[in-house]
Structure formats: structure tokens, C-alpha cells
Amino acid sequence: MFAIWGHENAAEITYYGLHALQHRGQDGAGIVTSDGQQLKLHKEVGLVNDVFSRAQFERLSGRAAVGHVHYIVNGDGGLDNVQPHLFHSQSGSMAFAHIGNVMNAHQLRGELENEGSIFQTKADTELLAHLIKRNGNAITVASLADALEKMIGAYAFIVLSEERLYVALDPHGIRPLSIGRLGEGYVVASETCAFDIIGATFEREVLPGEILTISDEGIESNRFAIREQRKLCGMEYVYFSRPDSNLNYVNVHASRKRMGMELAKEAPVNADVVTGVPDSSISAAIGYAEQSGLPYEMGLIKNRYVGRTFIKPSQTLREQGVKMKLSPLHSIVEGKRIVMIDDSIVRGTTSMRIVRMLKEAGALEVHVRIASPAVKNPCYYGIDMSTKQELIAANYSLEGVCKKIGADSLAYLSPECLERAIVKDRTIHQGVCTACFTGNYPVVEKQLQTTWKQQ
User: Fold this and answer.
1) Contact 43, 28 (CB under 8 A)
2) Which residue in 3, 185, 242, 450 is deepest, having the highest Cβ count within 10 Å?
3) pLDDT in tens, 1-51
4) CB contact at 8 A, 43 and 95
5) Helix, strand, coil percent values for the chain (each to nearest 5)
6) pLDDT digits over 191-227, tens only?
7) Contacts of 201 by beta carbon, 8 Å cutoff, 6+ apart
8) d(CA 400, CA 397)
């Protein structure tokens, strides 16, 4: 997500912000602008570059905007589910953008439908709109707070009206969200890399359980829930975020490099060269090589025009994406014992294909080292890992996974070392969510897991 308040070229700035965040979603993009009188929307299925043109920017006038790149989770594809969502009423209009997952959405939708609400999408953004309107005609901090208090899960919301911009983060702060300044205006983004591309300066993180109201009068902070110990998603550091982003005051590249160093201590191996799977594993591979004393080499080349395979909506597309995305450097790997560093193994598709490619290119041995713990548990917080059946480590032993991907050896980073690599100062960071690795869910209770699986 990206939003801006107080800039003459709000739509163009939002476009560049979304371009910096394209890695977070490649299935659709949209922008809503406000000129103080009305909200204007343009969204389409596709990449940011394909969705927007100069003609659209001329129509999207205004000094405020909110944008979103869509990532399909649980089959919520199609234009109807591309955000932001724009809603009109007699009292005014509201545009909503959202990341994460509201776990009790099924229950809340049922209650609202019994009261007469009719939903057009599967998105939690529409759910929030109905909850707000149930509390009155116009959106206020009080109506937004009351709606958010009813939601259980991991979420970040941005709401734009004609006169204000509202920003909210769940009580555990599981999803990332930061505030910056651009001249006299304010910007909000899922990652700080979006600030760098537009020349904005980072101000601070949005706090767990906080609602921010941004307007021409400035910025106002309120709380809608008691702040819990922050548990920012561990997969943000492992895979999702760009290495030049800072999440909760911790640089992603630096944390990934420390993951690689910890992995080298935990799982050394006799080998000739270390290589990383582009792009999210490069930092960990550098750390592993530095700690182990082995040379780091670029053993795999990435085709920059192919999207991320983990977030593709089907297994067939993921497998095709792997074949198109990576190529081995024969002169580097031939006749060598390779340590292949990857950020994670989720379904096993990518690792299996890469090991095979390296061996076909002449590698004598391929030792796979994973810079995160084994993913054994579903994510209920907005990442597309919703069932144990699709998680290879949940269905095979360590030896079984190693055999299935064709590696000569396999080792994962321990949860303790993962957290040590990320958490430098507990007074600031306070920990990470490792639910998909350990099964310790910071928000979920058993009855909610059951409810969510039934959706």
C-alpha cells in the first residue's frame, strides 16, 4: 500500500510508490485520488506499468491519493478484488486499501448480511466499509475505531475520504506500515523503499493498535486497542520485503546477512563455493560465505522480466515461472561442490528445479541451506500458505524433503537464530511472528482457526 496527503502531483507520486512496491503484488494495481470535492478511481488487473498511462494521471487530479498492488490470496483474483475499493454514499465517499487478513471476516459478514448489507467482493476492505457505515453516515475516528475493534487478525488499513486520510494497524503490528514526509505533505507505505524512490524522509513506524488521521491541519494519533507486544511477520524479513527497506527500524539486507552468518554457524559443510538464489537469498548467501570463509559466486542468473514464483496463483504457473526465471552459470558451478542458499522452502517447486539445474550444469554436489526455519504451518495473516497439504516440510521429514528436492544435504536455520538475526534491540523491536515456522500464533485461537478454514 501507498498513500500521500498534501502534494500537487499525488497520483504520479503514488504511481512511483507502487512501482517500488511491485514485488509485493503483481496481479493488479489501483489508485484513488481526492481533490477535496470528490474521489476518482482507476484500477486494472496487471502490473503497475501496464495499468497506468499519462491519460489516467490527467484525470486523477488531487492533492491526496491511496494506491495498492494486488496479491491473490485464497482465490481472490479478478478486477472486483483489485484495490483500492471506492464506496459512495449520500454523506460522502470513501476509498479503502488493505493488507493482511481478518480472521473473523466470515462471522462479521454473516452478521452484516443479516442486517441487510450486500457484499460485492471477498475483500476485507469492503467489510470495514460496512462496519463503519453501521455506526453512522460519515467516517470518524470513533466509527473507525469501533469497526476495527470487531476485527481479529493481522491487518493494515488506509482509508481516504474527501477531507482526510486515515491509517490503522492491528494491535500486534504483524503487517509493516511506515510514515514519511515529502515536503509539507505526508506519505504512508508498506515499506520504506517507496520513500526512497520519491525522495521522502522516513518519520516513524505506525504503532500497533494506532489510528492516524492526516489532513491539512496535520497529523493526529489515537488508539483503538491496547498495544500488544509487536510481532512483525518474520517472512517479511526472510522473503517479501526489498533488501533496501527498513522494517521496524531493522534493515532487511542486514538482517538477511545475519541469517546467513547464523546458518553458517549452525550448518557448515565442506564445499567449494557458495551461491544464492536471486534475489531475496543473495544477502544471506553473502553472510554465509563471509562466516564460513568460502568464496561467494554468482551461480544463478535471474531473468528480470519474470515475476516472483512464490506469489503466483497456481502450481502450474509457479513451475513454469521457475523454468523461465533462473539460469545456471556453467563455468561457475561445473565440477564444484555448491552450497545453495535459499530464503525458504514453501512448496518445494523452486528448490527442486534449481537443484536439478545446477546438477545438469555440472555441479558435483548441491548442499541446500535455508536461511529460515522449515515452513510447517499455515499462515492466517495474509500470506498465501493456507493449508498444511501444500507445505512440503509439513508432510515430509528433513531427509524426505532433501530427497524430494534432489539435494546432497539440507539444513534450515533454527527459529532462535532467525529471531537473533532480526532482533537487535528488544526495547525497539520486541520480536517477530514465527507462526508459519513454529506454530505459535500471536493472534489465533483454535476456534478462530476452525472458522477461518471454513471460509
Assistant:
1) yes
2) 3
3) 999 999 999 999 999 999 999 999 999 999 999 999 999 999 999 999 999
4) no
5) 35, 25, 40
6) 999 999 999 999 999 999 999 999 999 999 999 998 7
7) 180, 181, 182, 195
8) 5
Alpha-carbon distance of 53 to 280, in angstroms, equals: 30
The CATH architecture annotation of domain 251-435 reads 3-Layer(aba) Sandwich (3.40)
Q: What is the DSSP letter of 24?
A: G
DSSP H helices, 186-250, are: 193-198, 234-235
Q: Which residue has the cell 513451475?
A: 319
Kind plus residue range of the DSSP H or E element containing 352: helix 349-360
Name the one residue in this structure whose C-alpha cell is 478454514. Answer: 453
For the chain, the domains span 2-228, 251-435
**Dist CA 373 CA 395 (whole Å):** 15
Q: How far apart are CA 276 and CA 298, in angstroms?
A: 7
Backbone angles phi and psi of 384, in degrees to 5: -80, 65
Question: What kind of architecture, by CATH, is found in domain 2-228?
Answer: 4-Layer Sandwich (3.60)
pLDDT band at 305 (very low <50, low <70, confident <90, very high): low
> Residues 178, 193: contact at Cβ < 8 Å?
no
